[in-house]
Amino acid sequence: MLKLENISFEVENEKEILKDVNLTIEKGKFIAITGPNGGGKSTLARIISGVLKPTKGKITFYGEDITDLSITDRAQRGISFGFQQPVRFKGITVHDLINIAKGEDLSVMDASHFLSEVGLCAKDYIHRELNDGLSGGEIKRIEIATIIARNTKLSILDEPEAGIDLWSFNHLIEVFMKMHQSKENSIVIISHQERILDVADEIIAMVDGAIVKRGAKESVLPELLHCEDPKNCLYCQDILEA
Amino acid sequence: MNDIAKKLLKEVSGLDEMPKGAYNIRENSKTVSRQSSENIEIVSKEDKSGIDIIVKPNTKSENVFIPALVSCSGVHDLVYNDFFIGENADITIIAGCGVSTGDSCDGSEHNGIHRFFLGKNSKVRYVEKHIGEGTGTGKRVIDPVTEVIQEEGSYMEMETTQIKGVDSTRRFTTAKLKDGAKLVIKEKLMTHGEQFAESKFEVDMDGEDSSVNLISRSVARDYSRQTFISKINGNTRCMGHSECDAIIMDHGVVSAIPEITANSLDATLIHEAAIGKIAGDQMIKLMTLGLTEGEAEAKIIDGFLN
Ligand SMILES: Nc1ncnc2c1ncn2[C@@H]1O[C@H](COP(=O)(O)OP(=O)(O)OP(=O)(O)O)[C@@H](O)[C@H]1O
Ligand SMILES: [Mg+2]
Q1: Which ligand is nearest to the CA of A51?
Q2: Which residue in A76, A87, A96 is closest to B285 by CB distance?
Q3: pLDDT, tens digit, 9 for 90 and up, residues B39-69
Q4: Is ipTM > 0.85 here?
Q5: Å from A90 to nearest chain B CA?
Q6: What number does the ligand 1 atom closest to the CA of A45 have?
Q7: A2-87+153-240 topology per CATH
Q8: HEC letters along chain B
């Protein structure tokens, strides 16, 4: 469904953040992207969703060249992107945002359903403003709820586990599994969480702006550990200790 | 009342027909319809244009409507309205001003001078909407002056909204608060074109444990300009907070000028101001949910001024 060919991303006369990335994602897949901090995972997600334009390369989605399409056009074609750091808005309520995501005006009851999915008590949250009053974990769950509400062909979630407590996390994994039950839809989760890597169909490891390995967990993790400087790589150390 | 006036009435006060209870409707400098209720008496002033609104002590949950309409050009309306709120009364005042100049090149003006005297432990919610309409070059001007005197334990909440069509406005609000009196002001403002808006507050907290909270949210588009001046004096143990939050677009200009003075060690005063364009990540987020740039901008502004 999604194909990235020779995608590079360079910031002005500085380093290459993505280096000639080639990637194909089939429909109905659950893919996890992992790798050390600064490896380029979020950048890749931004390139796919259109937030950033690649400096080189081509992106196709269901056969259509979307390289030059706007964020809006890509969203409308069926790409969703849950941010690593959700955005806050003064005056826009949780209900408003779910309506925007769904593209229709839902009743309180229908909108609440998506909050329950992410373990938020709907009546406490549905009318809340998306302002600084929400905790990090709360706003993160709301972000995930909007992606569930959109229910598009491709959903990319950037570190959805961040800030979410352990108990809810188990439930969230079920939610992700459910999201990809549809044979049509694919879900890509950027994560450092082994639990997520465990349930994914495939793992993609990104180091230093390049995909170093793709495959089942057993084959990818060892490769990751051979990153250039594992001793000074927090990610590798975590895995080494585990 | 003609159609223009009826439409203005609906927009500023939400009324389709004459309301129940007390009201006074002013059109082109004259009272066109009035009704007092058992607890709220409305009488004309004898020495100048305007009315006294007298609310009996202990009046509960009543509304009073006092819209002022200017439905043609060339009107220069000046009105004095005094509100005397009896002890323990709890009422809502729905005010508002609509100025329509049609396709004329002559401007119109409405200047309301409102004074509120809140008796002990009384509670007032004051809701006011200003709008201007007309396609001609005639300037629509609204310059309201508001003076609030609050006795012990009284509570006043003012909600003022001006979203479109007023070319120039200078608002001046002063308040004096006695022991335990509480004042909340929520102001919403959007300016377009070459419009100018100034909002100036001067609040004296003279009584112990009095408090004021001024919240201003505004959007300045095109070449419009806004100035927000808040002067808060804490003269005893009290709490003062003012917050100016503004979005600028196009070539809009906003200034926020706070002046907070603590004349007592026990005064706690805070001023916050944030002025800037719409945050890029807010636009991006809404676009990733499928909105176009224009739709995203409209949602953000609507919510902000909501
Ligand atoms: N606009 C930019 N200008 C300069 N450097 C950038 C820019 N955007 C990203 N980078 C750098 O590119 C690298 C990749 O960043 P990215 O956010 O994609 O990493 P990540 O894999 O998502 O990391 P994390 O696991 O910490 O979220 C980092 O070194 C980052 O500092
Ligand atoms: Mg990241």
Answers
A1: 1
A2: A87
A3: 999 999 999 999 999 999 999 999 999 999 9
A4: yes
A5: 5
A6: 18
A7: Rossmann fold (3.40.50)
A8: CCHHHHHHHHHHHCCCCCCCCEEEEEECCEEEEEECCCCEEEEECCCCCEEEEEECCCCEEEEEEEEEEECCCCCEEEEEEEEEECCCCEEEEEEEEEEECCCCCCCEEEEEEEEEEECCCCEEEEEEEEEEECCCCCCEEECCEEEEEECCCCEEEEEEEEEECCCEEEEEEEEEECCCCEEEEEEEEEECCCCEEEEEEEEEECCCCEEEEEEEEEEECCCCEEEEEEEEEECCCEEEEEEEEEEECCCCEEEEEEEEEECCCCEEEEEEEEEECCCHHHHHHHHHCCCCHHHHHHHHHHHHCC
